[in-house]
Amino acid sequence: MTGDRDESARRVMEAPVGHPEHAPMARPSRRDLIKGVIASGAAASGAGTLFRASPAVAAPLGQLAARLLTLTVNGQKRRVDVLPQETLVETLRTKLGLTGTKIGCNHGECGACTVLLDDVAVCSCSVLTHRVREARITTIEGLEGPNGELHKVQKAFIAELAPQCGFCTPGQILSAVALLKVNPKATPAEVQRALSGNLCRCGAYNHYLRAVLRAAADV
Ligand code: FES
Ligand code: FES
What we know:
By secondary structure, the chain is an alpha+beta fold. It has helices spanning 2-14, 30-39, 43-51, 55-58, 60-63, 88-95, 152-159, 169-182, 188-194, 205-217, and strands at residues 67-73, 76-82, 114-117, 120-123, 136-138.
């Protein structure tokens, strides 16, 4: 057997470039490559394995084909390829470049990924992008005014020195914006309840509370 392998290796090495002996193993097409990248944000590490898989192994990829959707994000129509199981936070961050939306727990507990869907605060890690095709999606980037000015809630957060590390801040702000839209004169208890789904590892809860009350007073 070893002799056969040696003979085979010798034939490959001695064959001129372009000779059939140099024919590569099944090579991925560009379409396969794009599907793989969409299927995994960290496709690079697994790409070799994925693309050299036999057709039988690769078949499920067909069932995960992305669909082109049009989303309404921050007042703009955005066209994006979306996988069936893709969450909104993944689409926003990795495909639309809206990285102001953070990922903390990634399963609906910390509020770092909060965005607005038709002005209602939701955890975007727990929403499938396909489900929000009809919704108006607002991320932290979308609060900016037409001339780049900050939203009054953002200004109040700065005035109260609310953010510490800042990781939870976009989610806190969007929860506050959602609250003040429906309850512009929210009481401290109402603010606390509205922001109770937004965890802050820095413990800046009192700063955030004062900031939202400041914004409410500014209405
Ligand atoms: S990242 Fe979505 S709730 Fe924590
Ligand atoms: S400011 Fe650091 S997690 Fe909230």
